[in-house]
């Protein structure tokens, strides 16, 4: 474009410094450049604009009327540059995108709503998608990159999966409200109740079976139910008892339809963990969601909702 004025930001910065210091000598010291080099830059700027920017005297340098106009515009330019840098870097560093989160039914019932609320508030550019499944299926989906973050029970340690423990839960004997007479039970005592349990290879069933076999205990299983919703419904209607974590029946306890007593001697524990693929663990969109999941679980335990 004919008559287009092209100026480097560095030259404008030199001009602003001389205007603020009202002295080429002081400006050169502040900029840490030689005074002759500074004078040449200002002279070139004046030649390009075809105006005088400073009135030089023994006392220093004062901006002319044209210099005052340029000074005001220079401040605006630098402010815009700073704002542009801020806006661009903030946008670049702000987590954004779609994150698929897999959770088992019961933890998901309590974690998902609180997680979504926090994500909307803090990271509005992240879109969460929830996938329900049991731990084995979720681990497979994680391996296949079908989900980015998974909440799982006791996943097996693997190099390709980064696992972080959220909390450790005790298994409890669960019955219809009013049917449990003790504050806690031994595994032998719990095993004598008519139990409604999932089939193998359900992980919880294997966990209970392993502890029973190690202690030479036989489980009194009267009904097999491979869905946690069905199991809780059968127990609620008095068809038997089951063994679950307290977290699995929070809603029913709050509704007053189920109760639980921890199993002692031996205690049966399992860990609730959050996991992601190791090769994805540095993605900010995933790590911030992992941290929010951790916050939610801490809140649930500290408020006594989860224990």
From TrEMBL:
This protein's UniProt keywords: Activator, DNA-binding, Transcription, Transcription regulation
A Pfam family recorded for this sequence: HTH_1
Transcription regulation listed as a keyword: yes
Domain HTH lysR-type, chain residue ranges per copy: 7-64
Domain of life of the organism encoding this protein: Bacteria
InterPro entries (UniProt xref): LysR_HTH_N, LysR_subst-bd, WH-like_DNA-bd_sf, WH_DNA-bd_sf
Entry's Gene Ontology molecular function annotations: DNA binding; DNA-binding transcription factor activity
GO terms of biological process kind: regulation of DNA-templated transcription initiation
PROSITE patterns reported in the protein's UniProt record: HTH_LYSR (PS50931)
Family from the record: Belongs to the LysR transcriptional regulatory family.
Protein name stated in the entry: LysR family transcriptional regulator
Species annotation: Roseibium limicola
């Amino acid at each position: 474009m004919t008559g287009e004025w092209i100026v480097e930001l560095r030259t404008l910065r030199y001009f602003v410094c001389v205007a603020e210091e009202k002295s080429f000598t002081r400006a050169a010291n502040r900029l840490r450049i030689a005074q002759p080099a500074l004078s040449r830059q200002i002279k070139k700027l004046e030649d390009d604009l075809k105006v005088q920017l400073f009135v030089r005297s023994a006392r220093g340098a004062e901006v002319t009327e044209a210099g005052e106009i340029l000074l005001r515009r220079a401040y605006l330019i630098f402010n815009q540059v700073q704002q542009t840098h801020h806006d661009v870097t903030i946008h670049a560093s702000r987590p954004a995108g779609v994150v698929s989160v897999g959770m088992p039914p019961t933890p998901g019932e309590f974690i998902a709503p609180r997680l979504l609320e926090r994500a909307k508030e803090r990271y509005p550019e992240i879109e969460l998608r929830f996938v329900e499944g049991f731990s084995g299926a979720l681990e497979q989906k994680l391996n296949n990159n079908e989900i980015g973050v998974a909440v799982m029970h006791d996943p097996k340690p693997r190099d390709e999966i980064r696992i972080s423990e959220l909390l450790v839960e005790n298994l409890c004997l669960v019955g219809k409200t009013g049917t449990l007479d003790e504050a806690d039970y031994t595994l032998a005592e719990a095993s004598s109740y008519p139990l409604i349990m999932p089939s193998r290879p359900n992980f919880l069933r294997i966990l209970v079976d392993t502890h029973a076999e190690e202690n030479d205990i036989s489980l009194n299983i009267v009904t097999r139910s491979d869905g946690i919703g069905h199991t809780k419904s059968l127990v609620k209607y008095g068809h038997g008892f089951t063994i679950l974590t307290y977290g699995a029946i929070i809603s029913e306890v709050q509704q007053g339809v189920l109760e639980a007593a921890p199993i002692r001697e031996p205690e049966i524990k399992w860990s609730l963990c959050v996991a992601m693929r190791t090769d994805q663990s540095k993605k900010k969109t995933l790590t911030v969601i992992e941290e929010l999941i951790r916050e939610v679980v801490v809140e649930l335990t500290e408020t006594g909702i989860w224990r």
